Amino acid sequence: MSLDAFRLDDRVAIVTGGGTGIGKAIALEFARAGAHVVIGSRKPEHLEPVARGIRDLGRKSLAIQVDVRNAEQVDQLVDRTVAELGRLDILVNNAGASFMAPVEAISPNGWNTVVAINLTGVFLCSKAAGRHMIPQKRGVIVNISSIAGEHGSVLMAPYGAAKAGVINFTKSLALAWAPHGIRVNAIAPGPVVTEGFEGVLGMGGEEAKETYRRVAESVALRRWGKPEEVAYPALLLASDASSFMTGTTIFVDGGPSPRH
C-alpha cells in the first residue's frame, strides 16, 4: 500500500483541546501530513505556540478559544473554520477534563461538569461539523475516549462513564452518517504522559513516583505511552488509509498486564 494513503494534503482539520498533550501531538502530526489545522481550547495561552508550530510546517492554522460545553461557541469555531479555510474535512474531539474523588464525594455539579466536557462536547462539536460535512458528502470524525470507558475508574467515575458514552456515541454516529460518506471512529488511550501529568509528578514527590511505577507495571509493555503514540493512530483514522473503517474504537494502551 502506498504511504500516500496516509497523507492529508490540503485537508482542513479541527482539533479540540489542541494546545497541550495528545491534542497538540495530533495537531502537529496532521500538519506534517499536509493538513491545515484549527486548534481550540478553553485556555488561549496554550494555543498560539502550537499554531505557530503548525505554520512553521508550512500549513495554515487558527487558534480559537472555545468551551466545548457551549453550543454557541462550538458553532462559531466550526463556522469560522469554514469561512477562513474554505471547508471542514476532519474533526478530532479531544477536549477533556476530570478530577479524582470517590463516588460518594462527587457533587452533582462535579459529575455534570465532567460529563459535559467529555461527552456533551463530543455531541455538540460533531453536530456542528455535520452541518458542513453532510452537504459535502465527505468527512471524518475521530473521538478520543479512554480505557476508562471500557474498564471503569474507581476514582474518576464520571470520566469513565462519559468516555464509555463516547464509545457508544461513536458507533451510533457512524451508523447514522455513513450514508453521507462520513466516517466516525474513536481511540481509547491508556496511561499517557502529558505536560499536565509531568507537572503533577514533579509536585507529588515519592508518592507520585510510586503511582507512576505501579501504573507502568499494569501495562504489558511496562511503560507509559507518549502523546505521539496516540497521534499516529489518529492520523490513520483521519486519512484514506482507514477508508473501510467506521464505528470502531482502537485501544492504544500498551496491552494488558499478564496479571490480568
Q: Could you please describe the fold and organization of this structure?
A:
This protein has 260 residues and is α/β, with parallel strands linked by helices. It folds into 2 domains: 3-190 and 226-252, NAD(P)-binding Rossmann-like Domain (Rossmann fold); 193-224, no CATH class. The chain has 8 helices and 7 strands. It is globular and about 50 Å long.
List keywords for this structure.
260 residues; alpha/beta; Rossmann fold; 2 domains; seven-stranded parallel β-sheet; 8 helices; 7 strands
Task: Give a short summary of the structure.
This protein is α/β, with parallel strands linked by helices. The chain has eight helices and seven strands, in the order βαβαβαβαβααβααβ. 48% of the residues lie in helices and 15% in strands.
Q: Write down the CATH topology of the largest domain.
A: Rossmann fold
SSE class: alpha/beta
Low-confidence stretches: none
Strand order, largest beta sheet: 3-2-1-4-5-6-7
- Top-tier CATH class of the largest domain: Alpha Beta
Largest sheet: 7 strands, parallel
- Provide the domain count: 2
The number of helical segments is: 8
Order of helices and strands: EHEHEHEHEHHEHHE
Measure the end-to-end span: 36 Å
CATH homologous superfamily label of the largest domain:
NAD(P)-binding Rossmann-like Domain
Strand portion = 5-15%
Q: What is the correct CATH architecture of the largest domain?
A: 3-Layer(aba) Sandwich
| pLDDT averaged residue by residue | 93
Total number of strands: 7
What share of the residues lie within helices?
40-55%
Q: How does the overall form come out from the CA principal axes?
A: globular
| Radius of gyration computed on alpha carbons | 18 Å
